[in-house]
Every structure is written in C-alpha cells, then in structure tokens.
Amino acid sequence: MEYIKISGTDIRVSRIGLGTQPIGYFDKESGMRTIRKALDQGIDLMDTAPVYGDGRAEEILGEVLKDYDREEVIISSKAGMEKINSRPVRNASPELMEKTLEQSLQRLGTDHIDIFHVHWPDPLYPAEETARFMGELKEEGTIRAIGVSNFSSEQTYEFCRHAEVNVSQPPYNVFERAVEVGVLPFCQKNDITLMAYRTLCQGLLTGKMRLDADFSSHPVKKADPKFQSPRYQQYLEAVGRIDDFMKEKHGRTVLDLAVQWILGYDNTIALWGGWKPEHMEPVSEIFGWKPDPETRDQVVEIIRKTVKDPVGPGFLEPPTRQKTD
C-alpha cells in the first residue's frame, strides 16, 4: 500500500480508500467483512456519507470500528443533503450541516470526523457561510480536514476564499475524465488532495461484468445510463479491448489501469467501492507500475472508437430545494 499526507494537515492516509456507498444497501454481515478485509489490506481510509442507505453505511462502519483503534482509521464523511418528499436534495446551510454531523458522529461512534465534505454545492446558500462554518469545525477539532465533493474548480476557488480546502472529491475514472481539464489541474496548482470516487465506474472497470447482468437491486447502476442498452454493450466492448491491450502491453488488467489512472498523478487518492470481501482481493496487486502517457493516449483512443454514445456522471446530481418544493 502507498500512503500520502492530506494537503495542509498531518493526516497520513492510504492512497486507496474504501467507498462504502454500496455497503449501505446490501447485506450487513458481508459489508462488515468487506470493511475488515479492506483494513487487512492496508486501507485505512473509509469514505462514507449519511445518504448511503439513510445512515446504514455509517452505522455498519461504526460497528466494525469498535474493534479497532480509532486513531488508526481515517473516516471521511459528508453533509449538505436532506430529504424532501423522500428525495435527497441539496442543503448546505450550517444548521443542517451541524445537525447531520451530530447524527454521523453518533452512528460512527466517534467524537470527530477526519475529513468532512460538503456533499454537493448548494446554489441556494452562500458558499461563504458554509465555508466559515466548516472552518470553525476544524478549529474546534470536530473535523480535521475540509473537503468539497462534486465542486467545479470555480466553485472550489470561491470556497477557498473563506476556508482552507484540503480535499476535493469528484467523480473520476477512465470513462469520466472531465476533471482532467478542470478540477485536477486546479488541485495540483493549489495543493489540494484529490480523492476520486467512481474509480471503478460502478464495477465496469473491474472487467468482471457481463451482458446479462441484472442491476435491478442496485440503486446507482439502475439509474446510470452506462448500464442501459445500447450504451452498456459499448462500454463492455471498450472494457474488453482495454483489458486485452493492457495484458499484451504491460501484463496488467483493466482493473490495474483503472486505479493507477488516478494514482498516476501526485497527491491523489482512489476510492474503491465494494460490499463483498472478495471485492478487496486484488488491492495488493495494484501497485508497482504507472501508466505512461502513450498508454493513456492509446486507452483514450480505444474508448473513442468503441463508445459511440458516451455519457458522464451527470445523472448523479441531486436537485436543489427550489426545484423540489
């Protein structure tokens, strides 16, 4: 495992983090074993959020962490979402952020969150007030680092005017690369750690998915246009071609490429989602190489030729309160 320090802090963290979003929706015992397996693999970063199974992911993580030294595990969580008419919407007001944080601390069984993110930018609430509130939480020790999730470079810049941002968490993977011309260079220039989620694109980039897979029980996949025909077939073909290319050129797999696509840049973290212990098995085989620029260019060309109808992660964006009320 490789480790880095979160920018502007003394937090040392594994460069692969466990994304617990699916743990909030599947079998509890399997989720607990998955967390333990990740910790056994040297993954000390656990990324979660209250909206993952309506707090269930945090509760499961908190139950597992009773058996571990709290100071040896880095918890990343979020706030800034509420449910209105059973739908999650953005609300980054300090009042809701504080309430959500208190609930998260209780579920996790801890007195502090190591990395605390604004889950989504809220166009109806001044970034200045949210940022200052986050700064106060950091000063009092309730959180150790400030993160912004799903923020553009412009939104991050505005937030940075009022509080130090230590981490940016955007969706980023081989298929969804918009951050390479916005958020990523901004983070590199301003010394902000980039923590990418959707690193494996909901499992597409593991190379294990098949055409007849059933996604009806998966809350994210069934809403993701990539997993709907005819796009799904196009993405599966791209994955197969990338896997063949990687094996021939590097003796590696598409999964190795997916993670190192992120970690090939300095000061980056890749979140690895999973809800079964076996999902964590390949972690130890990921390190020891980096994709060179030629490899990156050839992979992009494979995608260009096979994915005729590409789509980004825009389906993830929750509505604002104004659009829901």
Automatic annotation (TrEMBL):
GO cellular component terms, A-Z: cytosol
Source taxon at top rank: Archaea
PROSITE patterns xrefs: ALDOKETO_REDUCTASE_2 (PS00062)
Domain NADP-dependent oxidoreductase stretches: 15-294
Alphabetical keyword list: Oxidoreductase
Keyword Oxidoreductase listed: yes
GO MF, one example: oxidoreductase activity
PANTHER family: NAD(P)-LINKED OXIDOREDUCTASE SUPERFAMILY PROTEIN, NADH-SPECIFIC METHYLGLYOXAL REDUCTASE-RELATED
Protein name: NADP-dependent oxidoreductase domain-containing protein
Organism: Methanolobus chelungpuianus
